[in-house]
Amino acid sequence: MTFEGKYYNGQSSKGMPAHIALLPDGLRIDYCADEACGSVHWELAGIHQSEFNDATTLLRFGKFPQQSISVVDKGFKEALQQQYRGAAFLKSGYNSVLNLGFSGIALMALGLLGLLVAFVIWGVPALADRVAMHFPQSYERTLGEQLYTKMLQGYQVNEEKTAALNDYLHALDTDLDYPITAAVVSSEEVNAFAIPGGYVVVYEGILDKMEHHEELAALMGHELAHIQNRHSLRAMARSLSYYMLASVLFGDVSGVAAVLVDNASALRNLEYSRSLELEADREGLELLRRNELNQQGIVLLMERLHMGSEYEMLAFVSTHPNTGDRIKVLNELIGERNQPYKKNPELQRHWEKLTR
User: Is residue 330 scored above 60 in pLDDT?
Assistant: First the structure.
């Protein structure tokens, strides 16, 4: 049984008139165009379904570049089904769906809807997190500067204490990949937060609660760990992932940065997972060790904040959860690697300027 159609060799977009014969083990295609004639044999296993409709049948064969044939004959499809009953290339995905019936189709639709919901709830934030992890450092620094400037617009900066805090930080061995810029803002709120790119904002309220400069070193070590490991950038990206996705979908890539900057105020209330908080705690403790300071500074800081008033707990501890468990972990870490500590007159001098 032979049918007329067109043959495409996969190397040229021009179709060649062809005669297609249905053989027991496959199709034989005899073609001829511009005095160039030939014959090819398609084994059944290599044939792929492309399209079946009332008038035209399109079939493909092999790997890239794929050959294909086009036959405008209603009888061709019927002949294929009769000759090669049950062959894989004759199975229609569309018909398979229809064969599921109403309940099957409904279950499939619910499954697809579930996948979509799962992607929106978990996939989009996870994707934003991965994007944030691969930001170029120079771009992160520029973004951080914009966030820092935007954030400080709503506060009164204590210039004297800001200078003392930056002097304190510069006297510390922080081992940070970013230049550090910090500001002390006039507020009774007990809080501090990290901004991507090497920026930190500290409230006077939290400084007033401290009694030893090692507590400040521990706080700075904790916040700088959030910067070094991009916790702040990732947390912002996750919390604003839907706005960022909309910017990308509408082709406004620059809008991603705009979304982050416009939501700079979210930095003060960023919440980190338990694992990220513990990671920042460990690195805060490591900063104390590196500078040969009293490791109990970080425990004293946690205990002081943990025992604060309900308002203070709301301002700081609520965004740094599981404080009691973290104190326990820190004490265990200190016990595992206890070391003598030294007084540091330079840090003490900058600390006194901060607290007078």
Answer: yes
Architecture of domain 2-93: Roll (2.30)
Strand (E) or helix (H) holding 155: none
Alpha-carbon span 48 to 249, nearest angstrom: 34
Q: Which residue has the tokens 């082709």?
A: 251
Whether 275 contacts 326, CB under 8 Å: no
Q: What is the pLDDT of residues 112-167, one digit of tens each?
A: 777 766 655 666 666 667 767 777 888 888 888 988 988 888 899 999 999 999 99
Residue-wise burial string across 40-79, b where 16 or more C-beta atoms lie within 10 A, e elsewhere = bebebeebebbebeeebbbbbbeeeeebbbbbeeeebbeb
Per-position b or e across 225-240, b if 16+ CB within 10 A of its CB: bbbbebbbbbbbbbbb
For residues 61 and 46, is the Cβ–Cβ distance under 8 A?
yes
**Cα–Cα distance measured from residue 274 to residue 277, given in angstroms and rounded to the nearest whole number:** 5
> For residue 51, what are the CA distances in angstroms to 2, 6, 22, 71, 128?
20, 15, 18, 11, 38
Residue with tokens 């109403």: 102
Domain ranges of the chain: 2-93, 100-129, 135-355
Q: What is the C-alpha to C-alpha distance for residues 279 and 2, in angstroms, rounded to an integer?
A: 72
> How much is the CA Rg of the chain, to the nearest whole Å?
34
pLDDT tens digit sequence for 61-112: 988 778 898 888 888 888 888 888 878 888 755 455 445 566 766 776 777 7
Q: In what order do the strands lie in the sheet with 26-33?
A: 36-43, 26-33, 16-23, 2-8, 67-72, 56-61, 47-52
- CA geometry: angle at 330 spanning 328 and 331, to 5°? 65
Q: Where are the beta strands (DSSP E) in the chain?
A: 2-8, 16-23, 26-33, 36-43, 47-52, 56-61, 67-72, 181-185, 192-195, 199-203
- Closest of 300, 305, 144 to residue 228, by C-alpha: 144
CA 282/CA 275 separation, integer angstroms: 11
pLDDT (tens digit per residue) in 251-292: 554 555 666 666 666 676 677 778 888 889 999 999 999 999
